[in-house]
Design a protein that fits this description.
This protein is an all-alpha fold and about 230 residues long. Helix content is about 70%, strand content about 0%.
């Protein structure tokens, strides 16, 4: 049965959720809508916010899903993100790109929801992951050549489940970094802006995230996924 390296699996996970490159804050494509939310009341605010919601809801949900590991928690985290966005948007001062601010809120919300879930189940990762089907974890079916060996399609699905289980099991701050870097495709500089930390910290944490992912996979017989 064919196996797929982790880097390729991450690419497939993010393929249908590719985000546009973050713009310079001074030429932020969301600037006009944000300003309308900040200065408008009633109908004007609602209309501008609806447009921002439509722009970001899928990107926010994707981040939350990959960090939390299940649809229910992802929906909760995504909802918390969008509510926080509506409440705090008047305080946004364009010191960073608006998209960076949104992703930062989403990452923090997903981490908080996941921690609450783990506390509620007394830290049982098995309970959190139990009962998840492929449709729950991977709502977007990856593109695989219809002419490919059926065993390859099965193996890809199984490999994705292993990687998603790893993301839902390792330290959430590590999994959020892996999601931003490999699923969302952000650069080190963009991650630095999103998480409000310097480049050295981003690289150091990513190294630790890679080590945590490797340890999880090796303990569960998924070492082959680490091969290039």
């Amino acid at each position: 049965m064919r196996t797929f390296p982790v880097s390729w699996i991450f690419l497939e996970l993010g393929k249908k959720n590719l985000r546009p490159k973050l713009a310079n804050s001074l030429s932020d494509p969301d600037r006009d809508l944000v300003l309308k939310c900040q200065s408008g009341d009633g109908t004007e605010f609602e209309e501008a916010y609806r447009q921002l919601y439509a722009l970001y809801k899928n990107r926010v949900y994707t981040i939350c899903l990959r960090v939390t590991g299940n649809e229910e928690d992802a929906l909760d985290a995504a909802q918390e993100t969008m509510v926080t966005l509506a409440r705090r948007i008047r305080d946004f001062a364009f010191r960073s790109r608006f998209s960076s601010w949104v992703y930062r809120i989403a990452v923090n919300a997903a981490i908080d929801v996941r921690r609450r879930r783990l506390e509620a189940t007394r830290g049982s990762v098995t309970t959190v992951l139990g009962g998840l089907g492929e449709a729950d974890v991977f709502p977007d079916t990856p593109s695989v050549d219809n002419g490919a060996d059926p065993s390859a399609r099965v193996s890809l699905g199984e490999s994705q489940k292993v990687v998603q289980a790893a993301l839902a099991s390792i330290n959430p701050r590590f999994s959020s970094l892996l999601v931003l870097r490999y699923v969302q495709g952000h650069s080190y500089e963009e991650i630095s802006e999103i998480l409000e930390c310097n480049l050295g910290t981003v690289k150091s944490r990513l190294n630790r995230a890679h080590a945590a992912l490797r340890e999880f996979l090796e303990k569960r017989g998924g070492a082959a996924l680490l091969e290039p």
